[in-house]
Specification:
The structure is a homodimer of 213-residue chains. Chain A is α+β, with helices and mostly antiparallel strands. Chain A is built from 7 helices and 5 strands. Chain A starts with 8 loop residues before the first helix and ends with a strand.
Chain lengths: 213, 213
Amino acid sequence: MSDAPQFDQAFLEKFEQLLTWRRDVRHFRTDPIDPALLSRLISMACLAPSVGNAQPWRFVLVKDAGRRAVVRRSFERCNQDALSDFHGAQAALYARLKLSGLDDAPEQIALFCDHGTSAGHGLGRKTMAETLDYSVVAAIHNFWLAARIFGVGVGWVSIIDPAEVTACLQLPKDWQLIAYLCVGYPVEEHDQPELARLGWQQREAPENCVLLR
Amino acid sequence: MSDAPQFDQAFLEKFEQLLTWRRDVRHFRTDPIDPALLSRLISMACLAPSVGNAQPWRFVLVKDAGRRAVVRRSFERCNQDALSDFHGAQAALYARLKLSGLDDAPEQIALFCDHGTSAGHGLGRKTMAETLDYSVVAAIHNFWLAARIFGVGVGWVSIIDPAEVTACLQLPKDWQLIAYLCVGYPVEEHDQPELARLGWQQREAPENCVLLR
């Protein structure tokens, strides 16, 4: 307890920069990621909180070209389908957005939640079972921030059919797909979301999302 | 782009300490949190990623004693109910665990996801709609890490009836409860989860949660 670290003003400012410059990256260079670095990022991800300390996160490193092609086709189809929901200028803008880095990112990681885990003995999950999935999201966010420290970008691809992607990975039945990540060095760095820069959706003021009760 | 920050080894080590010493806190001091600090933490939370840049997080600061009492009773009932699922030594250990800081923490914040938001125009949510909720989890995790930098502890209470808690807060119908947080200065600091220290659930080795496909 006496070893508890202190975090000074300099660290705080740098941490704020980290949050500010973490991006959902879609434009990747193809240079590989050192496997030792990837392992380190995963270890840092595993320091996330989890309900009942259940640690339900499972990192599936998708290496196989055939499986990557299944994911790529799933994205292509789902993205076409989403495009058809928009009209006029919004459809034109949607079509111009780059929404995945599947072609260039050297690493693809599917994140699953192990709904069958006995770890944690169910503590905290009876009333809000979704907290098990949320634990995996916290691990993903640790991974994302840690990656940015090393200059590594992460892009979260949600425009896929989760059943299709899960099936092609041949995993235990009770694993649920939480995220499909592209990981690699970004082509450029930004402090503003790409969707804000390209005019899809601007940032809201934080005070507008706070209520008193 | 030329202003992109570099993060050095010293920052990395400190960040790793931050992840290591962030805890789910249940033992709080009653000293108040400066409202300006709380606003700052919320602003840092709002730098989280969100699907389609939808920023669906809503922070409900629960101040009213009557509402807090509803939440307290909900926890008490749900916790008794959960205890009845365990037997023998495990039940005895469960009964000894402190699973909420509702009595002492000066701040209580309910985090909601606004399912009715038009921000983001649905981008990225058609195939995996749950990513809207996950965006709120990322904001919570930003808040949690930022709080720890200031020595402020966060405890996530999931042993409550979400319908009951939501009802007492009188919010728009399409807001979904993601988390109920206790926020305050912790009584002590630890680098190990309380559930590990007390023998409920140990840490797993990160390499055991990685698969190749």
